[in-house]
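Entry 12.
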Amino acid sequence: MIIDVHVHLRPGHGTVAERADRLVRFADRLGIDKLCVSLSARTKSPYQSPPEEYMPDNDDVLEAMARHPDRFVGFCYVNPVHTEHALGEIERCVVEGGMGGIKLLCGAYCTDPCYSPIIERAIELDVPVLQHTWLKVTGNLEFESTPAHFAALAARHPEAKLIFGHTGGDWEHGIKAVKPYPNTYVETAGGNPEAGFVEMAVREVGAERVVYGSDAAGRSFASQIGKVYGADMPDADRDRILGGNMQRLLGL
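Predicted 3D structure (tokens):
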């Protein structure tokens, strides 16, 4: 089984059903079995989205899950700044709606205390948390978490299952930042398909802590899965990265 841990219903034209069908059609070309999907085309300000914006995004994900229940695993998007509302949205989407994880973007650095109730609830529900991280030479967006922030979050919540979104963009720096924390999972999504990324991740943290993601539709499935297929590693490690590790994290 191949599981893409980082997929969005945006960008694209058409209804939720049309966009969901399009993602499945493209995934089929690469043999990708399941798509962990969050956010859609509705959110105007995803980095600082208020509840009235991100709730419809989660509704879109629930609709996509209902249309393709065997293909989509929803990740509930919330803004941790709106903590109480975020906890209620997790109940609605994960507990009642059957989503398999939580997606966090910005709103506040992931070292902010507002994160703690959300991470603790994820631990109680035994679901993974996908945290967007980046380290840009041009400067990060406001409250955009870096590898250092993510490492601090992992240290504070050792029982959480934390997926290191984009591995901070600067993957050499990112891999080293989270190496000491066994509850972290290096994710391959986004960025150019540079040689050496996956090999370094396997060498430094072990194949059991690396997961495949694409950041589709912002990136193509082909360019991102190519990082894993093109890496020099045993087939057993490749299988773990492409799906085995996420099967374990999602309890499939």
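Annotation: The CA atoms of residues 134 and 140 lie 7 Å apart. The first helix runs from residue 16 to 30.
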